[in-house]
Amino acid sequence: MRWPWSSSSNEQDDEAPLPSRDTLIATDWSHYRDPRNIVPVLVLTGSAFALSTFYRSYLKRIPQAINIGARFWRKRSLFGRVTSVGDADNFRLFHTPGGRLAGWELLPWRRIPETAKELKNKTVHIRIAGVDAPELAHFGNPAQPFSKEALDFLTSYILHRRVRAYVYKRDQYDRAVATVYVRKWLLRRDVGLQLLKRGLATVYEAKSGAEYGNLEEKYRKTEKWAKLKRKGMWAGDRKKYESPREYKARIGEAKQPI
Fold it and tell me: Helix or strand or coil: residue 158?
């Protein structure tokens, strides 16, 4: 006779024999090989992988030029808002992949920082490809003629605006060299070309490594036109003209120890 408070029943349940090896071998595994079960698993796995790849390729934010991967150069572009302008041929870009379609500037967690402290180490330094603007005063060196006019133009043209930069490479100053476009009255404008048109920059000259993004011929024609029309820096005495490259070479030589 079992007493009501007896636990023998529970003990018997706890001591139930485990399935033997033969039982496991005899299990019908066909359920797991059924296409109706395999296909959904493969679809879900493939979808997760595709979404992950899409995010890394198109929606992952790039904070600085040093974070741009090797596969990105010459194949992709950066879209974002210009947060500051340095000289007349470079600026800083806060990358907003996907733009407003991805919620940038619309959702609270997709806002663009405004203060220098918030933006620290979060912007891509862009060097406009194919052009060279007059040098501002740096490190005790005098400014070139039209350097302020070039800076003022670039600042008014792109500061706080959304631009797209087609990146080619990273230079020795950890800047992304890129052809940059901005929308003006629904038209896409090449920023470097606009500087050349106004005589506020020259075509970039270098012994090697110059980047033009297949636009060198167009840039040289535009520079020639600006010279002919005596735009900007070309309005003065040609005999006294010193290109940005010549200016930098002269300053560099002056700093060499005697």
Answer: helix
| Residue among 77, 85, 96, 78 nearest 159 (CA) | 85
CB atoms within 10 A of CB 219: 23
Residues 6+ apart with CB under 8 A from 166: 77, 178, 179, 180, 181, 213
What pLDDT is attached to residue 17?
60
Catalytic machinery residues: 127, 135, 175
CB within 8 Å of 245: residues ≥ 6 apart: 132, 202, 205, 206
pLDDT tens readout for residues 133-171: 999 998 888 999 999 999 999 999 999 999 999 999 999
Residue type, 34: D
Question: In degrees, to the nearest 5, what angle opens at C-alpha 228 toward C-alphas 250 and 240?
Answer: 30
Question: Rounded to whole angstroms, how far apart are CA atoms 39 and 103?
Answer: 34
Tell me how far apart the alpha carbons of residues 207 and 223 are, in angstroms, rounded to a whole number: 19
Residue 49 exposure: Cα atoms within 13 Å on the Cβ side: 6
* C-alpha dist (Å) from residue 170 to 28, 126, 210: 59, 9, 12
Residue linked to tokens 């230079």 = 171
Q: Collapse the DSSP code of 149 into the 3-class scheme (helix H, G, I; strand E, B; otherwise coil) and give the result.
A: helix
